[in-house]
Model the fold of this input.
Amino acid sequence: MEPQGYRELLDRVKDHLQAEGMKKVSRLTLPIPDTKFIGNRTYLYNFKQFTDMMRRDPNRVLMYLARELATAASMDQEGRAIFIGRKNKDSFRVLLERYINDNVICSVCGSPDTHTERLKKVTMLVCEACGAKNPTKE
Ligand SMILES: [Zn+2]
Done:
């Protein structure tokens, strides 16, 4: 007899959490990352579309992407993000979704209408729909 109950339960909880995460992101309907390789760089043409939608400082989001992709990044005057190395379109999608789940979507009511407030050393996510305040994971 296999003691499988616990393992199964964990898997089920994980599936459930992932499904919840997808649901939250879908409220925002993310654009598809528009990327192109030029030489040894990856251009993310519609970077500004994402940050406008999230209403977050593009520099912070850029820093997050650069850190997660373990590379250097910059932004040009048109608001395009440029990464050193060839980065996969899907990795941008996954990282931007994760950023939104962790730093934009309200964990209480699921609303994307939020902003951040600096409180001493902690950045708080403030929900404009339900008023909840929670530290961001950024
Ligand atoms: Zn809320």
Q: What stands out?
A: The chain has a mean pLDDT of 88.
